Structures are given as C-alpha cells and as structure tokens.
Automatic annotation (TrEMBL):
One of its GO terms (biological process) is Notch signaling pathway. Transmembrane segments: none annotated. CDD domains: EGF_CA. The lineage of its organism: Eukaryota, Metazoa, Chordata, Tunicata, Ascidiacea. The keyword Disulfide bond applies. It comes from Ciona savignyi (Pacific transparent sea squirt). This is EGF-like domain-containing protein. PROSITE patterns: ASX_HYDROXYL, EGF_1, EGF_2, EGF_3, EGF_CA. Disulfide bonds join 14-23, 30-40, 51-60, 67-77, 88-97, 104-114, 125-134, 141-151, 162-171.
Length: 342
C-alpha cells in the first residue's frame, strides 16, 4: 500500500485486495459466496469459481444448455441441469429418440408378413386374404366362376356345386349321360340333359333300370348290399322316382325276374334280401301281403332267426340272422309306364 507519515505515526492506504494496518492481510473475496453453483478460490482482489456440472459463467449462475447439441434425433428436447429429456415423435423411442418402435411386434398381420415402418406397418397378405391386417377373406366367388352351379367360397379357392347335367371345376361341362354304358334302347345327349327311350314292355324308369314283369317292376340297386332286412327296406324306399318296397315276387316269376334284373345290375353276394318273414313255426310269409312264400328252406348253421334270404343259384330260401347277413336287395314297385326320360 502507500504510507503517509504522521507525528509518531503513519497511515497505510492499501492497494486493492489488501487490508490491515500494514496492508498485509489479503481480503477474502469469497466471503460473500459469489459462486452460486460452484466452489470459490480466493485471489488478490479477485476470485475464481469452479462450477459444478451443468453450470457456467463467472459466478456459475448460468445453466448450460444441454439441448444445444440437438441430442434428440426424432423428438423435442427439454433442458435440465446437466441433463436433458427427449419427448419422442410418434414411432420413435429411446433416450435420444433414435430407436424406431417395432410396429410389427404385436403381429398385426393375421394372415401375412409384416414390414415395419415409422409409426406404421405394411402387411403383405398370403394368397386369398386382403385388408390392412390381412384378416378379410377374398371372395373367390365374386366373379361368379360357377357357370351352372352354386359357388362356395374358400381361402384362395372356391367349390362349385353343379346343377343337374353339368360337371367340371366351373360346372361348364355338359355331362354326356349317354357316353357310359346305359340301358336305353335309344339314348341322345342333350345340353344339359339327355333323352332315353326304354325297351317297351321290358324296362322302365330313369335310364331303364326297372325290369317289367306283368304289372310289376323289379330292380337290384347296383353294387348295393346290406346286412339287415330293415336296412334293405329303407334302401328300396329311397330309390329314384318315388322308390319302392322290398321285393315279394311269385316263385314262378323268379327265373324271368332274375334274368332281367341281372341284365341291368350285378349281384355281389349271390343272395337276395326279400320281404319274407317267419309267421310262426315253419310258416313263412311275405311281410306286406301275408302270402305264403314257400316251404323250400335251408337253415344256415345254428341260426333260428325270423329272416330268410334267397340263394340266387337255385332259388332256395336260406334262414339267416335278420341283422348280420350280407346280401343283395331285390326291390319292387307297381308299373309306372315311364319309358321316356327325363
């Protein structure tokens, strides 16, 4: 400092930063705590602040802008103290919003492959499916592919149920009813039907399958056997043109009947179910008329049931189980006179 002489005294005028009688005491410039967010180091008429993280300036009173480097790649930055927070735009995640959210993670494509986008996804549907999520079945019947039939939609497919006389995947092919072996005396294919004329007084019905004997007709359903009399009755009832009933032929007519029906069908078993049942003891009758059938019976070993079938080779009745014997069926009905089809 500067000294000023007095009488038996002196006065010191200290330079900046010093104090005391002799200006030998450094003034503590940190005493006022000038460093708001930091540590103070005293100097001579000065101080130095060492700022804590996130602060800057002479007195550490200015928050460093942690958003200045634009750390949020896809989002908005909010500055903190030695930190920042990113608010991500749609489709992004992570501290710096630099990780694309996998929009395919939830498997949104029900029937297809998922391709991730930014806040979006794209489905590549497997064949037969459509829609944003491939969850809508394409209507394969929309184009009306079944020309002569009803269409049932599937998945990338359809099925046609053809109307009578048509065939093929799209029901666009006429069935030639005359192309296969048939019983018509005259057969002419039509679109989509056919024209069939039977041998007059010999056969009648659709495709001439019923053999005419007097005022009665007979038929053996092709390659059809059954193991019970009850089932045989049902099969006859379900035949075309109103069906018929289980046969009750006169014994005298059997050779002629069999000759005619075999010309229209093939015996599979060598036996025929007829509508014959045991009335009592050794008396056997036809179920509908009650007419005694015959006494020409043979017994199958250990069978005492109430049913019998006819052996085709010699026209003998064989007593069999009513529910467990395999035989062909002879069906019968009254003459209809239908000799032209359809």
């Amino acid at each position: 400092g500067a000294c000023t002489d007095g009488v038996n005294s002196y006065t010191c005028t200290c330079t900046a930063g010093w104090q005391g009688t002799n200006c030998d005491s450094n003034i503590d410039d940190c005493a006022a705590n000038p460093c708001v967010n930091g540590a103070c180091t005293d100097g001579v008429n000065s101080y130095t602040c060492t700022c804590t993280a996130g602060w800057q300036g002479t007195n550490c009173d200015s928050n460093i802008n942690d958003c200045s480097g634009n750390p949020c790649v896809n989002g908005a930055c909010t500055d903190g103290v030695n930190s920042y927070t990113c608010t991500c735009t749609a489709g992004w995640q992570g501290t710096n919003c630099d990780s694309n959210i996998d929009d395919c993670a939830a498997n949104p494509c029900v029937n297809g492959a998922c391709t991730d986008g930014v806040n979006s996804y794209t489905c590549t549907c497997t064949a037969g499916w459509q829609g944003t999520n491939c969850d809508s079945n394409i209507d394969d019947c929309a184009a009306n592919p079944c020309v002569n039939g009803a269409c049932t939609d599937g998945v990338n497919s359809y099925t046609c149920t053809c109307t009578a006389g048509w065939q093929g995947t799209n029901c666009d092919q006429d069935i030639n009813e005359c192309s296969a072996t048939n019983n018509c005396a005259v057969c002419q294919n039509l679109v989509p039907s056919y024209f069939c004329v039977c041998e007059i007084s010999s056969y009648e019905g659709i495709l001439c399958t019923w053999a005419v004997i007097g005022t009665t007709t007979y038929r053996v359903p092709a390659t059809t056997t059954t193991t019970s009399r009850i089932a045989a009755i049902a099969i006859c009832a379900g035949l075309d043109e109103g069906g018929g009933f289980l046969g009750e032929p006169l014994a005298a007519n059997l050779p002629t009947i069999l000759t005619k029906v075999v010309a229209r069908s093939t015996f599979v078993s060598g036996f025929m179910w007829l509508n014959v049942v045991r009335q009592s003891g050794s008396t056997w009758v036809y179920g509908a008329t009650g007419t005694v059938a015959t006494t020409n019976f043979e017994f199958e070993a250990n069978v005492l049931d109430n049913c019998a079938v006819m052996r085709v080779s010699d026209f003998k009745w064989i007593i069999v189980s009513c529910t467990s014997f395999t035989a062909d069926i002879l069906c019968q009905r009254a003459i209809t006179g239908k000799v032209v089809s359809p």
